[in-house]
Specification:
seven-stranded mixed beta sheet, 24% helix, 2 helices, OB fold (Dihydrolipoamide Acetyltransferase, E2P)
């Protein structure tokens, strides 16, 4: 009986470690983050502090909104009518599409498409 308990305990430990290894994202997956896209209204733009930021409010339902704040870096593409513009050209209240990446170290704007 004692031998069976030890064997079952060892098998359980091996199974638990296997599940942990399979469920933990690899270093490249964790670093790359996940990409999302929202459409909404700009409620804030900060160009006075580093990093620059944009905040977009997007409707989820008729009564619920989601607010996304993202860091704007030199890699962020900011576009209006097919032409690149600066973050300073984005105005509060303007409608935008925001493509962003959510990573461990923050939320980063990839593309800001002014409409």
């Amino acid at each position: 009986m004692n031998m069976i308990c030890r064997t079952n305990g060892a098998l359980f430990t091996i199974a638990a470690l296997t599940v942990l290894l399979l469920c933990t994202p690899s270093g490249s997956d964790a670093a790359s983050g996940r990409t999302y896209r929202v459409h909404g209204q700009v409620i804030a733009v900060n160009v006075t502090q580093t990093p620059h930021m944009i905040v977009v409010k997007t409707p989820l339902t008729t009564h619920d909104d989601m607010t996304v704040g993202a860091k704007v870096t030199s890699q962020t593409k900011i576009i209006r009518n097919g032409k690149r513009i600066t973050l300073q050209a984005i105005r509060m209240g303007e409608r935008v599409s925001l493509t962003y990446i959510k990573q461990r170290d923050g939320v980063f704007a990839q593309i800001i498409q002014a409409q």
